Amino acid sequence: MKIISHLGPKNTYTGQATRMLAERIEEETELVDLASLEAVARSVALHEADMGVMAYYNYLEGLVQECLDLIYENDLKITGMQRLPIVLSLGAHSENHSTAEVYSHPKALAQCSGWLWDHYRDSKQIPTTSTAAAAQRVAEAKSGLAIASSEALKKYGLDLVGEDIGNKRYGRTNFTDFYLVARENGCAFDKTREYLTMVAITPHVDRPGLLAEILQQTAYHNLNNVKIHSRPALDDVAIEGLEPQMFYLEVVGHRNNDDMRRCIDSLRYKMKPEGRDIEVVRVLGSYERP
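and the corresponding structure tokens:
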């Protein structure tokens, strides 16, 4: 039996994504909900779970930085992805439709900022660990409003005050991408399918045009960059007078594709200082493109 951990409680979009990813695994699975993304990552790293599911990217709000950092710091591998449309609603207890406080996950509050401004601009917004936790809190306290999926609100017996209240961008439905992570690579290469690969690059050198060099290498090896994120380096990098940066690149292709392998080798050669055997490029995993 495979144990899969995910951010709880159960009635969240993460829980739904976890169930969908579990259906692809050709073994019996047990789903375990935990209190935080860090707990999910550590449960896998410490062999308490075989796999974990974490939100990685939202169409409206962008990158979930903590997700990639936890994968990197715990030396995990991304082996799958699930994309879910996100449709958020507002619920209240039938005995008390107080509007003084609105509860939800910080990302959900941000994704509904326009609707909240139009309808409840004077309400205090209070973050919770998940959307389902917000629904549970309002149900138990019999006060306030909760933003969650309609299913979660109904499960906790709340009245629907507003439906599909998320911000709209160019008429596109909001979505979140979720990663399935494990301790080892698990996505085999099939030439008939399309893949994405997440690569972490921590240059131990600095020169003008360094980022352009990285992007030129992917272009030279006929690889398309889907996303690029930068952040202060997580590793100890000694570059005098500068704040060292690292880059996450999501690239179309599988880690075992010949072009990808050649590109990774080239980046490793160019990004590390001469005469020092330092890890500067790490492949965080390959997964089927949604």
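(Above: one complete record from the training split.) The longest helix spans residues 258-271.
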